[in-house]
Amino acid sequence: MSGSQCPFHLSEWTKLSSSLPTYSGATFTRWGRKSCPSTSKLVYHGQMAGHDYRSAGGGVNFQCLPSDPQYLPQAPTNVPYNSLRRVSYDIHFASKMFSGVDLNQHQVPCAVCETNQRVTTLSIPAMTRCPTSEWTLEYQGYLVSAAEHFDSNTFVKDVYHSTTYECIDVKAESLTGKQQINFSGMSVFPVRAQCLYPGAVNGCPPYQTGKALSCVVCSK
């Protein structure tokens, strides 16, 4: 088809395409930060929350609770249901692992983000970069969970029930900027690889026994 037979001129096509709605993609939670990476836009921010670590019930997944909660008018009060509690970093043994800032016992913020024209997200443990150049790096971090409660005074671990593994941003920050005094919520701990073969002294190559595992969140 010659140029004179084309039903649209370039200027008309440019005008039409500019009037189309902006296409948005997938969402992901950026744990440990109040804002989203420059590659995404903020949906809402809030605080990381989870079940009461002393309880055998509750959900296993963490929640990003908005900073401005809304309640239904008919919602009852003093309900005897499962509770959500704030989450803090428990990294007393490596308090400056997040960009050199001491965040031990600080409350964990979170941000729910929306990618721009990318339709899927992927969190990969034990990686610091995305699989290929087709993927966009959203953020790097450390893998954490709250399956164990550690008493820093007695150095005793109390195991209750499992939680999900999440990726805390390597540039994590504090929700309030203050350490939680008399904290009664739950905590997240870095996750390490543990050798499956008793008696092994050199770990399980290529994994290093005891070293905090990294993680990465990518979009495509």
How much of the sequence is in beta strands? 25-35%
Question: Order of SSEs, N→C?
Answer: HEEEEEEEEEEEE
Indicate the percent of residues in helices.
Answer: under 10%
Shape field: globular
Mean pLDDT: 82
Radius of gyration: 22 Å
Taking the sheet with the most strands, its summary is: 10 strands, mixed
Domain tally: 1
Structural class: mainly beta
User: Whole-Å distance between the termini?
Assistant: 35 Å
Number of strands: 12
Key attributes of the depicted protein:
12 strands, 35% strand, 220 residues, mainly beta, two-stranded antiparallel sheet, globular
Q: Could you explain how this protein is built, in words?
A:
Strands 1, 2, 3, 4, 5, 6, 7, 10, 11 and 12 form a ten-stranded mixed β-sheet that branches. This protein has a two-stranded antiparallel sheet with strand order 8-9. Helices cover 4% and strands 35% of the residues. The chain is mainly beta and 220 residues long. A hairpin with a 4-residue loop joins strand 8 (148-151) and strand 9. It has one domain. The longest helix is centred in the N-terminal third of the chain and has 9 residues, at 10-18. It is globular. The protein is built from one helix and twelve strands; from the N terminus they run H-E-E-E-E-E-E-E-E-E-E-E-E. It has one helix at residues 10-18; strands at 24-31, 40-51, 63-66, 84-89, 109-116, 121-125, 136-145, 148-151, 156-159, 166-169, 186-190, 214-219.
